[in-house]
Amino acid sequence: QVQLIESGGGLVQAGGSLRLSCAASGRPFSRRDMGWFRQAPGTEREFVAIISWSGGSIMYADSVKSRFTISRDNTRNTVYLQMDSLKPEDTAVYYCAQSSLAYRPTLDARTGFYDAWGQGTQVTVSS
C-alpha cells in the first residue's frame, strides 16, 4: 500500500520561508516522478512543482518559479519543497503526489497522471 506523508507546513509571515517534506513508502520511490500540488479554498487543485524519477528534470508553475525549489533524496524516499519569499497568495493545503507510471519518459503536471496522494499540509502566509 502506497503511503505519502507530508510535513513542514505552518504559519509564516510574507517574505518568510518554509520547507515541506514528503516521505513515501509502499513501492519503489526512485522509479517514479514526484510532484507538489496545492489547493486553496474554493479553487481547484493546481500544480506547483514536479521532479523526475532521476531528479534530472524539474518543472515549476510560473507563479512559484525562482521562489520555490523541489528536490528529492532517493536514499531517504523523500521529496522536498523549499519555499522562499512566500506571499499571501501561496496560502493553501499542499499535497505531494507520486506518478502512476514508473520511469515516465517526460514530466507531466496533470493531476490525472498521479495515483498516490498525501493527506496534505496547511501553509498559511500572513500579510
Task: Please give a handful of descriptors for the protein shown.
single chain; mainly beta; 7-stranded mixed β-sheet; about 130 residues; 4-stranded antiparallel β-sheet; globular; 11 strands
- Rg for CA atoms: 14 Å
Shape: globular
Largest sheet: 7 strands, mixed
List the helices and strands in order. EEEEEEEEEEE
Report how far the terminal alpha carbons are from each other. Answer: 40 Å
The portion of residues forming beta strands comes to over 45%
**Tally of separate helices:** 0
Helix vs. strand class: mainly beta
SS elements, strand count:
11
Mean pLDDT, to the nearest integer, reads: 96
Q: pLDDT under 50 segments (min length 5)?
A: none
Helix content: under 10%
Folded structure, characterized:
The protein has 127 residues and is mostly beta strands. The protein has no helices and 11 strands. The strands form 2 sheets. Strands 2, 4, 5, 6, 9, 10 and 11 form a 7-stranded mixed sheet that branches. Strands 1-3-8-7 form a 4-stranded antiparallel sheet, with no helix packed on it. It is globular. The mean pLDDT is 96.
